[in-house]
Amino acid sequence: MIPNRFAGLVVVPFLKKLTWVLLVASLVAFGFGIRKARAQAYEMQSFTAVETTVVRGVEYPVPFVDNGVIGVSDGGNLIARLGRSAFGNDASIHTRWVVNVREKTNTLIDDGSKMKVPFPYKDFFAAAVSKNRAGERCDGSPADKIEGLDTYLKETTGTSGKNTSERKIWLAPKLGCFVIREEQRTIDKDGKLVRFLVHSLTNIEVGEPDPAYFDTSLADGYTDTKLEDYKGTLVNHQKATAE
Fold it and tell me: Is residue 47 a part of any domain in this protein?
């Protein structure tokens, strides 16, 4: 069991109709599109934080809320994200994503299913967090402090079909310009809300995270599992719990 520095954290359970894909897709949205041009680079400091995603819109009659813990170390080359396992009802049973940027590995450790699963390095979570690691540039405008940290705000607008999306991200120079808050609002041609996402880091503690967050060794009782087998096990579990 991994020691939890945020033992009082309440983690909202996954909605049954949502799969792990939605969670990781939200992480990809969180990290997507940070440019490196025309700005100064900042050195990454190690830190731990509570990560929260809230999504509401026409596809979410009830807002989707997910909490987890993120740890960043080794100049942004080691990044871990602890969330609640879809295989258990106990908040202490984690799903742990571990990305090693230097070695280009992306590993899932699921305490609920007791599986260690290699993911493609550029897929999902790794694709998101690798854009937020050390070496990213703060190329926005100076903004208000968040969690006591100076920030730069960057705003972009884009279109997809008949929808328009406005995106704001706040980058913290002290954390190597890691994105510590994102707001993404999508409206249709009539100005009606389609989707609103807020992704934020709170309870930020600068310093080395618990080394256990980044441990990808095969623990006793755990199995090396292919990605396809893990997905199949997860789907079967969700079908069984929905009955």
Answer: yes
CATH number at residue 124: 2.50.20
Question: Structure tokens of 101?
Answer: 């940027």
pLDDT tens for each residue of 162-208: 999 999 999 998 888 888 999 999 999 999 999 999 999 999 999 99
Q: How many Å apart are CA 125 and CA 79, to the nearest integer?
A: 10
Does residue 119 lie in a domain region?
yes
Structure tokens at 49: 């934080």
Q: Whole-structure pTM over 0.85, yes or no?
A: no
- The token duo for 51 is 């990560």
pLDDT range class, residue 20, cuts 50, 70, 90: very low
Q: Report the domain count for the chain.
A: 1
Q: Is 91 helix (H, G, I), strand (E, B) or coil?
A: coil
Closest CA to 22 of 50, 57, 46, 47: 57
Per-residue pLDDT of 227-237, as tens digits, reads: 999 999 988 88
Which domain, by its residues, includes 154?
20-217+227-232
Edge-to-edge strands, sheet with 141-146: 141-146, 149-160, 163-172, 178-187, 193-206, 47-57, 60-73, 78-84, 94-100, 105-110, 115-119, 223-224
Q: Is the dihedral of CA 108, 102, 67, 1 positive or negative?
A: positive
